[in-house]
Fold:
Amino acid sequence: GFVLMFRKILAGRQPALGAVVFDPPGKTFRDETYPAYKAHRPRMPSELRQQLEWIDAVVEAFDFPTLRVKGFEADDVIGTLTAQALELGHEVHIISADKDFAQLINDRVRMIDTMRDITYDPELVRKKWGVEPASIVDLLALMGDKSDNVPGVPGIGQKGAAKLIAAYGDLDGILAHVDDLKGRQKSALTEHRDLALLSRDLVTIRQNVALDRTVEQLTIPEPDPARLNALYQELEFYSLLDEGAQTRATSAETHFSPVGSVVELQKLLDGMADAPTAFWTVNGPPSAVTGSLVGIALSGAAAHGHYVPLFGGPGALGEAAVEPLRQWLEDPDRPKLTHNTRDQMTLWLRHGVQIEGVQLDTQLASFLIDPVRIIPHRLDQVVREFLHRPIAQEKSLLGSGKAKKRLEEIPLDELTDFACQSAAAILEMSPAVEQRLAETEQRGNLASLALPMCNVLAHMQHTGIRVDTERLDALGAEFNARRAEVDQQIYEIAGHEFNIGSNKQLSTVLFEELELPILKRTKTGYSTAADVLERLAGKGHEIASHVVRRRALAKLVNTYTRVLAEAVDERTGRVHCTLQQTTGRSGRLITTDPDLQRTPIRTEDGKRIREAFVPREGWVMISADWSQIELRVLAHFSQDPQLIAAFVENVDVHRRTAAQLFDVTPEQVTPTQRNIGKTVNFATIYGQGATALGQQLGIERSDAKAYIDRYFARFSRVKEWVDATVADAYQKTYVETLLGRRRYVPELKSNNFNDRAYGERIAANTPIQGSAADLCKEAMLQIDRRMKEERLEGKMLLQIHDELLFECPPAELDVLEALVKDRMEHAIELAVPLRVDIGHGASWADAKA
Structure:
């Protein structure tokens, strides 16, 4: 935190003079004056004390001036420097959140709280504390300061102190007019006059400390990048390593060159040994899924690389170079290494090339080794992790904003260096990655699950899903028209027009003009969050109901109809999203660009959006959905007889749980009770406590706790499994899925209770969610394999949560439905049967119904 803050200050403000000021060891004059000063503070935790030594090292590495003065706090040194700087005509920025510094603020002095990103000037001081900066000392003298154990005057708080200062000017004026006061204020100031004067002395920042340097001698030199890099390496702050310094240090050691002809390319490929060769494909915008193929870099020896320019850039060899590359890329006996196989496969599929023979994908390997450490496991992140140095990113090549260049504008030598350094880095770090795979026992998961999935996902990305844009446009127009009607209803109740999308204007109308009850406040006013509006709507406030409806309609347009229409590829008429394997912490697949997993289904309007997802002309869409897969995984792991019986007997598990909770027969369970049973079932999976469950059900915490206790009493083996899993995670520091994939839980090592509680929830949830993800991927692999064996034309399109989508010609419908259902229900055998609901239709909505 300190390093990032320090870098941000230097980069953003670029000060010419400055110093980091530390408190000295030992006592200061304030301790001598008042022994109780700061005496109440607990001893600094040892882990924090150890970090303070590194702060000294960081500041020293930046060659930044530092000051410590015996007998004085850092506040007094800063106060003295501030006075000196003002005399010389400088502006001063004090980087601190300590309110004591507010006394120094004026038109040329600001206090910057970097944690909250707040800059305090005189106006903000007046607004926050109710007095001028010059009166902060008197304010603190009266109200005291608990953080420093400054006593103040008992019974006088901030508001009372501010009123006294407004009436009498300062502390001396107040004490001179004590007889004019009444009641408790008079008696408090009469009795504790000495405490007020003592407190004023304690909180007054000295501005005349003798320093060994003047402010003008505190010049800030340019730091030495190599020195900083050495420190960052020692601290394992690899993301902070200076890219430029590293590039300058290593550029002379590399041997990168472009391939100038197809003949030269063929000679290169023929001469490559059977040892693994790393490759890295360069693509045009917007992404590897929909962008164009630009070139490919190959690296078969350390610090050596060859770049083959193919399309759109300088020296492009064109389609003639694709054929020799096809022979190499499609040869399963030519071992290959790369990063993000899935997207590179997608790029080459558009040229009819099916990549084979990939033995190591450093992105997938990094995810399997530790899924949460460097999400999303980009190449630059993984290189920093394993090689402890930076690597140039695309933005350093192309620039950004208005000055951003197109790839075809980049000189060939720069493009060659950029692409080859990526391929060379993959080759260089592969031994370290392989070693970590072996140490974490993840080589098998890479070979049998993660790498084969790349081929399935690449074909899904390449195929995309057809979208009826006319349907989307019509829905968007309808939703906008309905939103306009709701706007008019809101204006009628408000009595005037305003910007409903502005939370500030909306809160003014709701809580100041219409005087609706204030349920929650924010730092800047009254909350208009969704939960607040829904509670107001529940209390019968019509305008709140309208705003909720308006937001829902606006979200349908802005997040779905418009975004989906814009995402349609003009060449194919389909949406080609990216299917991420290394973003979901549990191992679940994540869709991005666009995120189709967020396509709504709970509301009628949401279901209508799914009507716009249609199969290829003349084909049929199939939807196959696992029923309660995570609860079935829980039954498998816990071996709870009650839970197993519910699934074996194929009964409504939520009704069964409700019956257990309420001591009734399943036939007697009401819809409300079943909903509680369902919520408690999933609360178990997600590790919810009584507080969270109570909020979700809208009941008291004690009632929610009673539900949880009753659940675990009835399903005792579930409780035993959760406790054993969490205990094992404390010992191992990780948990495992059904197929042995690991997720590390560093939160369990924290000294913070909330962090550990979060870690315990992760430990209990990951084996369930992660195993469901494993099961889904295994089923997808088996379905893909069977579809190829059967020579089916049908296509796997999407994986959305627990659902798989397909399209196929009508003649294949019965075969494909049977195949999909069989593999989804039997991909991995559990202690309970898996059940899949499957349907088909002319759209996603029809198939789901």
About this structure: The chain is about 50% helix and 10% strand. Residues 486 and 546 are 6 Å apart (CA to CA).
